[in-house]
Design a protein that fits this description.
By secondary structure, this protein is α+β, with helices and mostly antiparallel strands. It has a 9-stranded mixed β-sheet with strand order 6-5-4-3-8-9-1-2-7, with helices on one face. A hairpin with a 2-residue loop joins β4 and β5. α5 packs across α6 and α9 packs across α10.
């Protein structure tokens, strides 16, 4: 089956992948965005969002924005949204004398926003990946914001915004498994460089779903309200999932086991 976040653009990707299946097209499942603590966790974590506000008001952030005011003004943006300029220039292959500086600013700010402090936010995402029990090769690709946090959780310093189509690869054989980071380049989208990630005790820190809800101060997602009512075992990832015929953006593809996370 396929699982997806419920943002409009990701459905198109999932549908494209589903159409590529030779036999029966797999069903697609999704959760409403307000309840998705797995594939869009940052947006469902009020505590994380409050920490972002503190970052935006920090002296370090304000100083960098002031120092780079000229280039930000040339692109009609502020430091908080410079990643949009970076993304547009990258996708359109735009030639600009500002490219190196825009890339450096986007990298710095995104590593600040989704750095080591964001690791607890993706504990549900990472646990869902690592809970795979069947032998096979599992490839998970997602929004780079989630990927950054997951890489930090796996004790890997990304040092950059993950390139397009980069992914986390899990290889499981029996009780053994290895975790890799598939870092692609623009001319190597199908291959990429596999980097073995340290995984003797992968998820840092280990949070139960109930712990995550408490950490994030989330009392509105269905799994969090279920936990708070004293029924943590009822908080299944897709217990109230919506089956949909289309979804939006690839969050993970399971090769060989015909399961896809989007």
């Amino acid at each position: 089956h396929l699982e997806s976040s419920a943002t409009a653009r990701t459905l198109t990707t999932a549908m494209g992948v589903a159409e590529g299946y030779q036999q029966a097209r797999p069903p697609v499942y999704s959760l409403p965005s307000s309840h998705d603590v797995y594939w869009r966790p940052h947006q469902q974590c009020p505590y994380f969002l409050s920490q972002l506000d503190k970052l935006y008001n920090s002296d370090e952030w304000k100083q960098l924005e002031q120092d780079q005011a000229d280039v930000l003004n040339r692109h009609d943006t502020d430091l908080r949204h410079v990643w949009n300029v970076y993304d547009r220039m990258l996708v359109s292959n735009e030639t600009s004398s500002d490219w190196d500086l825009i890339q450096a600013l986007a990298t710095q700010t995104e590593l600040w926003r989704f750095g080591p402090e964001s690791v607890p936010v993706v504990s549900n995402t990472l646990q869902k990946i690592l809970d795979t029990t069947e032998d096979g090769l599992y490839v998970y690709t997602t929004h780079y914001t989630v990927l950054l946090s997951v890489l930090y959780a796996l004790r890997w310093d990304p040092y950059e915004i993950p390139p397009y189509a980069s992914a986390i690869v899990l290889e499981r054989v029996g009780d053994r498994f290895a975790v890799y980071y598939r870092r692609t380049t623009s001319d190597q989208l199908l291959g990429g460089n596999l980097v073995t990630l340290p995984c003797d005790d992968c998820i840092q820190p280990k949070l139960t779903l109930q712990d995550w809800c408490s950490y994030c101060r989330n009392d509105s997602a269905d799994v969090c309200t279920t936990c708070s009512n004293g029924n943590p075992d009822m908080a299944r990832p897709f217990g109230v999932a919506l089956r949909v015929g289309a979804i939006m953006r690839l969050i993970g593809f399971v090769a060989g086991k015909r399961r896809l996370k989007v």
